[in-house]
Amino acid sequence: MPGTRTAGLLALGGIALAALLAVIGHVEVNDDLSPWSLTVSDFAVSDRGGVIDTAMVVLALATAVLLPPLRRPAAARPTGRPTAGPGRGPFGWAEALLTTWVLGLLLAAVVPTNEPGLPMDTAAYVHRYASVVAFLALPVGGWLLAARLPAPAGRWVRGFAVASVVLAVAMVWSAYPGDRVLIGLVERMLILTEVAALTVLALTVARPITRDHAVVVPDKGDEAPANDHHNCMIDAKARPVTPARAA
């Protein structure tokens, strides 16, 4: 459907724009900030222009654009059987988790964390837990949604979902018992993996739908009566007519 493909293209454009803004936000901040040991949030709070926050908003909106077409049956895999959870009702589990990702990303963009090295305040805690919920909601929602996608796209989304969960666990370890070792690197790998899953979803929605036009070939058994009737007509024309005798 044209509207569905347009939504996919808009989402792809939003993802590309968000990636570009994130790169710009890393280039324009203080050179003393290390992307290996500091999170994206640390860069965002040091970015006076708000480019990284804008990138988060754009990425959330790009995901929101995908939600309506992903609810439609055209995005589902034609398995012939009802899908569990996300395939039932206007809001399934997968769609609800993707919506949670959108809301968590928006909240984290609006409520910044504190400056690096300062004690955490209320806003910083809100930012942290909004980010944690968003980072966990997307891979779980993607895993559930993969059952409704074509086979290649579904496998890619589930692969990225597994990788995201592994990286999320590594980030939690780094944040607490790991003394923040390479927490910035792990978080950026996590973000890249989740953005890759969103890209696969957008490509699936943007892909044009091809319909097969089948040609119905009549069965030979159906042609037999018509042929027999035609042959009978020919025999009738070819049979000589005997004149009737007078009484």
Task: Write up what this structure looks like.
The structure is a single chain. The chain is mainly α and 247 residues long. It contains eight helices and no strands. The radius of gyration is 30 Å and the shape is globular. Keywords: Membrane, Transmembrane, Transmembrane helix. InterPro entries: DUF998 (IPR009339). It holds the Pfam family DUF998.
Question: What does the radius of gyration come to?
Answer: 30 Å
Q: Which percent range describes the beta-strand content?
A: under 5%
- Alpha plus pi helix count: 8
Strand tally, please?
A: 0
Shape: globular
* Low-pLDDT regions: 74-87, 212-217, 219-238
Largest β-sheet summary: none
Gap between N and C termini, in Å?
A: 80 Å
Mean of residue pLDDT values: 81
Helix content: 55-70%
> What is the SS-derived class?
mainly alpha
Tally the structural domains. Answer: 1
SSE string, helices as H and strands as E: HHHHHHHH
Question: What's the quick description here?
Answer:
The protein is mostly helical and 247 residues long. It has helices at 2-27, 40-46, 51-71, 93-110, 122-145, 151-175, 183-206, 220-238.
Question: What are the SSEs and their pairings?
Answer:
Layout: H1 2-27, H2 40-46, H3 51-71, H4 93-110, H5 122-145, H6 151-175, H7 183-206, H8 220-238
Helix pairs in contact: 1-3, 1-7, 3-4, 3-7, 4-5, 5-6, 5-7, 6-7
Keywords: Membrane, Transmembrane, Transmembrane helix
Pfam families: DUF998
Organism: Micromonospora costi
Can you tag this structure with a few keywords?
single chain, 247 residues, mainly alpha, globular, DUF998, transmembrane, DUF998 domain-containing protein, transmembrane helix, membrane
